[in-house]
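As the next step, I selected for study one protein, both as residues and as discrete backbone shape codes, as given directly below:
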Amino acid sequence: MTQRVDIDDTYAEAFRSIYAAALITARDRTWLDHAVRAATGNASSSILCDCEAGLERYVGPGGDASFPTPDGRPGALVQFHVPRFRKDREKHLERVLLVRLSQNVLTCPTAACFNALDEPTCFKLGRKIAFFGDGWQRREVRHGRRVWVVPILSGEFVIERRFGYRDGLMGGNLWFLGRDADSALAAAERAVAALRQTPGVILPFPGGVAASGSKAGSRYKFAVASTYEAYCPTLRDRLGEGSCVPPEVQSIQEIIINGRDLPTIAAATQAAIAAAVATPGSSTLHALTRAGRRPAAAHVGKRDDGCC
């Protein structure tokens, strides 16, 4: 049966960020993953987390071989985003990096950390983290990089002296509306797999998927965001005409995409849609590329109705 895909123009507003990117290396993928998971943990949403962070891609041996690591070991690129509307954005981002790299990468066996953004705006972060060496730390040039070397119990920790930061974008999104929970999640998983192959973006939520998409504001004054009731399938009958959930939809999953710029997020969004549209049972894919104040893309509907 031929499947039909309808695309309707729509838009969503997002916000700019400033972000830093770190290149973490380790002896092998096992310890690399430990460092990445720890450094990017509890960073799904800037609503209550100190930042939004995630793995961009693996590089070097076992990863993207076109992106060699300075020390020739397996590596991972990770991004850390904070909203640009924060008045203390630079200071806050530096604090985010200081805490996460010192407490989660310095402490990880065999790990090292290098700057991944060659920008004129930068933090002298390595020096601050190197103070852990209690006077035994030293500056060196290794692998063509200006680094600090910190003696630690397991040997040495190497961290680059400066970490650049630049403008980015937070909040590109895709919605996957399914006839049941399994089909909605299957579509999201296919999209995540495609997005993992797109350089320059991260997916900050668990497994790349957000099960609880939110709206700004709440009836409770202490909450800055709350559940998007108009799109909660279990509230469809109670809301009546106030519900935006189609009759056949029983579950909705969301993907949030952060990245270096709008063209990168747009390309990632198209790759995700292409990967997800063939998912059986995904009656609707709702795609919003957040683009500041300008209209973007797209509402994608899929029906098994024999149309071509």
The helical segments are 29-39, 89-104, 125-130, 181-195, 236-239, 262-276. DSSP finds six helices and 16 strands in the chain. The chain has two domains: 4-13+169-303, 18-166. Residues 43 and 52 are 5 Å apart (CA to CA).
